[in-house]
Design goal:
The structure holds two protein chains of two kinds. By secondary structure, chain A is mainly alpha-helical. Chain A has 15 helices and four strands. The N and C termini of chain B lie far apart (65 Å). Classes of the chains: A mainly alpha, B alpha/beta. Chain A binds chain B through residues 46-47, 50-51, 55, 96, 149, 158-162, 164, 166-167, 177-179, 255-260, 262-264, 266, 300, 303, 307, 313-315, 317-319, and chain B through 30, 32-33, 37, 41, 70-72, 74, 76-78, 81-82, 85-86, 88-89, 100-101, 104-105, 107-109, 111-113, 124-126, 173-176, 178-179, 181-182, 199, 201-202, 300, 413, 416, 420-422.
Chain lengths: 358, 428
């Protein structure tokens, strides 16, 4: 009944090659966008923005970035936290050095700087593969955190090594700092999320994405059919780090406002984002969103239910939260090892035939 | 039928929304889980027990009941932000995050939202300058006071001179641990000692290399800015390399029973700073036992009573309640708002008479908060661990920090913050 192709005739190549070829799917996508842009900004409050939606959007960007590298190109990376830190410190230096410039461009530039750093750390990927590459990127993680802790220039010589985001505007609207409105922060992050998702989706559907997937599936075979592994791998590192840098910049400038590198961008962050894409689904943009939603929203939801509604002690609730989220991860991965995105694909297949499966 | 349904919905909504009647909301951003829970649990218990006592014994503050709420942060800044956003609309009278990282996050926010924040003995040191930090208070003492007091104690031990001595600082590699560095560097110039910095990455379970370096360099004294599991590991490592414990001094966050008990006999002689008295030898505990513990109303498991950090939570709650009383007196109303509470905190005065009346004689130094000075006078004592009696003994009287060194540093740092964020100065 849903997701039917029947009767959905395509008469041009453009129509045939569009992102969502099934009409129902396309409408659903437009509906989500309409709600995200047209409804949520008007009803959002501080709690929803700062505790739920901002982290969700920002982690989604990071997950999409990592998914390009790990899911599409097959290069395992544990350096996400470090690259997010590069984005955050880059945007901090830019914000404080050029206060009059629009924050939008600072965030893009911070992404660019992270892309450069990512390519540098991606160079070894030409010689190192699989688990060994994971260890090499782990080194990047520790090195970058150490660097931002060690060199006072990065945090403008502040006493405690903390960086704090000053008030900055985008086209006259305040988006960073404590007085920024919830809807402005939300819209700012949403625009970046949609942009990144759009870009990632189209990159992965095109030649570049196919090259990445060829490398992922078998790099020698890819080389034989004419894929330049140097270019493809470094491109994956660059695009992935660009996105992760944007997410790090937003994480610091818009969401938290003050950051300390060891606490905010430690190894835990790398694992968190990696878990997001594994649970969401490797090699799937939609999976990145679902994974981020699962790991960001589930704990907040559980906490509100257990402490807020049921009135349980906070420590008991916090421990239960770990257990429930952990259990759900195991259940989901047993039920569907390819992640929540695959679960969704299967549901879609079933829905096409429903209610007459035969 | 439809009308009845509507009425039912209305009734449910009426029950569901909290009654906006008179109560004083004291939230607690606690952490009972994670690597820092060992410090977070006793503090949260002490904080909550004192507020319960005030409710049970006095019927609240000025006749208005206290409402407590607790939010688990796990010492994590993201969760801290979530907690803050959750409670900020609920008239929280004072925020006490018990985490320097979360404090940094909230400093700009509390000023924008008009909610006072009390960071007792932690947080951003330069918040002492009330002309810049209007809503942040860090009385009775801050990290730079702590650093200076530790050095003063060493001066006393060395009959006034530290020239040529080597001092190492083992610190939690975070905003918290880095706070004292600048003061210690300035003091190093003044007193001629040599300072070595040894950062320990959070949470601090791995400190072998730092203590290997101490074993090699043999510094005369080791100072520690640690928290949570890091403290216990550091004390154990010091015991392992047979470092003389009486030359090892922790800040007040590195001086609880949890930190020294695991090392057993070896920890004997370890010193730590303290902001207040410890133990159950205060008249207040008679009331606490009667109204809270025996009535089955203790927070948590109720097994932390009288420990160092329990006393600190108690102290923090006591200061909050006294500030609320001051606010009620200033504004002549019992139902105070966060803005009124801020005024009360700024006019807070703790005297020995007041402490005696509260059942806590000589528990803490007397101090007075003012618009310019949000940080109190900077007094602390040194306590030493007696492993056989399993007890902290106070070995000095109140030591005053070196304000000649600290005040210019506070001015410089707060001026920099004011410039960075375009704050207009208050208190004129």
């Amino acid at each position: 009944m849903f997701y039917r192709e029947a009767g959905d005739f395509k008469t041009t190549y453009t129509a045939d090659g569009q992102t969502f070829p099934i009409r129902f799917d396309r409408m659903r996508y437009y509906a989500v966008l309409a709600v995200a842009f047209g409804v949520i900004p008007f009803v959002i409050n501080d709690y929803w923005a700062n505790a739920v939606l901002l982290p969700f959007l920002i982690y989604s960007i990071a997950a999409i970035g990592l998914n390009i590298l790990v899911g599409y190109c097959g290069q395992v990376s544990l350096g996400t936290g470090g690259f997010m830190a590069v984005g955050a410190y880059a945007v901090y230096k830019l914000m404080t050095a050029f206060p009059e410039v629009n924050l939008f461009f600072h965030v893009l530039l911070a992404g660019g700087i992270t892309a450069f750093v990512g390519v540098m750390f991606g160079l070894p990927s030409l010689r190192i593969k699989g688990f060994y590459l994971a260890v090499a990127t782990l080194a990047a993680q520790f090195f970058l955190v150490w660097l931002f802790n060690r060199v006072p220039w990065f945090y403008n010589y502040s006493v405690s090594g903390q960086i704090s985001a000053p008030d900055r505007t985008v086209f006259g609207m305040l988006v960073s700092g404590p007085s920024a409105d919830a809807w402005a922060k939300y819209m700012f992050c949403l625009v970046f999320t949609v942009m990144v998702a759009f870009l990632a989706r189209n990159l992965t559907r095109g030649m570049q994405g196919r090259q990445w997937m060829a490398i992922r599936d078998m790099d020698i075979a890819a080389e034989i059919i004419g894929v330049n592994p140097l270019r493809a791998k470094l491109m994956a590192f660059a695009v992935s780090s660009f996105f992760i840098g944007i997410s790090g910049a937003l994480f610091f400038a818009v969401y938290l406002g003050a950051v300390e590198v060891g606490d905010a961008f430690g190894i835990n962050k790398s694992f968190l984002v990696l878990f997001m894409i594994i649970i969401g689904g490797l090699g799937s943009i939609f999976g990145s969103f679902v994974g981020a939603a699962f790991l960001v929203l589930m704990p907040v939801l559980l906490k509100n239910v257990l402490v807020g509604t049921l009135g349980w002690p906070t420590d008991l609730a916090a421990h239960l939260e770990f257990m429930i989220v952990g259990l759900l991860i195991i259940i989901f991965l047993i039920a569907e090892p390819h992640g929540l995105a695959q679960l969704w694909r299967v549901t879609k297949e079933k829905l096409r035939l429903w209610p007459f499966p035969h | 039928m439809k009308i009845r349904f509507a009425a039912l919905v209305a009734a449910v909504i009426a029950v569901g929304t909290p009654v906006l009647a008179q109560d004083l909301h004291f939230p607690s951003l606690s952490y009972r889980t994670g690597p820092f829970a060992a410090g977070g649990i006793p503090f949260a218990d002490g904080y909550s027990d004192y507020l319960t006592l005030v409710n049970e014994r006095d019927g609240g503050i000025g006749g208005v009941k206290i409402r407590q709420s607790e939010c688990e942060t796990a010492y994590n800044t993201e969760k801290g932000v979530e907690c803050y956003e959750k409670i900020k609309g609920d008239n929280p009278l004072v925020i006490q995050p018990l985490s320097t990282g979360i404090t940094y996050q909230l400093i700009p926010k509390v000023a924008a939202d008009g909610i006072p924040m009390h960071t007792m003995g932690y947080g951003r040191t330069s918040a002492k300058n009330g002309t810049v930090f209007s809503h942040v208070f860090n009385y009775p003492a801050n990290y730079w006071d702590g650093a200076s007091i530790a050095i003063k104690h060493l001066l006393d031990v060395n009959s006034g001179s530290l020239t040529g001595k080597k001092v190492a600082l083992v610190y939690h590699n975070s905003a918290y641990g880095k706070e004292p560095i600048r003061t210690l560097e300035v003091l190093a110039k003044k007193h001629g000692y040599e300072l070595t910095l040894l950062p320990v990455d959070s949470p601090g379970q791995e400190q072998k290399s730092q203590w290997l370096q101490i074993r090699r360099d043999k510094p005369d004294y080791v100072l520690m800015w640690g928290w949570g599991v890091m403290n216990a590991v550091a004390v154990q490592e010091a015991v392992n390399i047979r470092y003389p414990m009486e030359n090892f001094i922790g800040v007040w966050w590195s001086g609880s029973e949890n930190d020294v008990l695991p090392a057993g006999e070896g920890a004997n002689g370890y010193k730590a700073l303290t902001l207040h008295g410890t133990g159950t030898d205060y008249p207040l505990y008679a009331d606490l036992t009667k109204f809270v513990h025996d009535a089955g109303k203790s927070a948590g498991a109720g097994d932390q009573v009288g420990s160092v950090l329990y006393s600190r939570g108690l102290y923090a709650a006591m200061l909050a309640v006294e500030a609320a009383k001051t606010a009620q007196a200033i504004h002549n109303t019992a139902a105070i708002t966060p803005a009124m509470m801020r005024d009360g905190m700024e006019a807070l005065e703790i005297t020995q008479d007041k402490l005696t009346a509260l059942g806590l004689p000589n528990f803490s130094p007397s101090f007075k908060v003012s618009c310019e000075n949000h940080g109190g006078d900077g007094l602390a004592m040194v306590q030493q661990w007696d492993a056989s009696a399993k007890k902290w003994n106070l070995i000095t009287d109140w030591i005053q920090s070196d304000s000649d060194v600290i005040d210019p540093l506070i001015m410089a740092d707060s001026e920099a913050f004011a410039k960075e964020t375009n704050i207009t100065k208050l208190c004129n």
